[in-house]
Amino acid sequence: GGMLSVADEYLHQLNPDARLVVFGQEYNPESYAICGSDMMIKGQSLENIFIGIK
User: Which InterPro entries does this entry report, sorted A to Z (predicted)?
Assistant: First the structure.
């Protein structure tokens, strides 16, 4: 969530009309939970964030 959130914020600074769709994968369950919490707090979608090896 951290790097994805920063990328989203940076893109919107460059172009407020841009729409970023993020994708992510985390192997570590604790890191995945932190990522999910961060994204939910910021109102971002977890639709394309996965845990484990895909």
Answer: SAM-dependent_MTases_sf
